[in-house]
Design brief:
Elements lengths: L2 H8 L3 H9 L7 E3 L2 E3 L4 H13 L4 H8 L9 H38 L1
Antiparallel strand pairs: 1-2
């Protein structure tokens, strides 16, 4: 399929498809008359990349997940590993936010007293 069809079916812009190629998330398609022609499984891969992005995974996380992914490989353990890492980073971010919120509420209370 051509890049425009892949983009349309996945809900992305063609520039995003080219970017995924550049980042090596998608393999370089063969060309016919200078036009990219994607295999039918490219749509599944692009949708998976898009889903991972919507779930908050970075493209680097997604690349780790997709590296070496065979069609018969179980995906559950990989998603779980990435999810645990993502959860840890989110927890750290939440802890920092909680600390800032506490700090600002303390400052606000102190300023009201002065």
């Amino acid at each position: 399929m051509k890049i425009g069809e892949l983009a349309g079916r996945s809900g992305l812009n063609p520039s995003a498809i080219r970017y995924y190629e550049k980042k090596e998330l998608l393999s370089t398609p063969h060309r016919v008359g200078g036009q990219r022609r994607y295999a039918s499984d490219a749509l599944d891969r692009v949708l998976l990349i898009r889903f991972a992005s919507e779930m908050g995974f970075t493209l680097d996380d997604t690349k780790v997940f997709l590296n070496g992914l065979r069609s018969d490989a179980p995906v559950g353990p990989r998603w779980k590993k990435l999810h645990i890492g993502k959860s840890r980073r989110s927890s750290q971010t939440c802890s920092v936010n909680d600390a800032w919120n506490h700090f600002w509420s303390t400052c606000s209370t102190a300023a009201a007293v002065l």
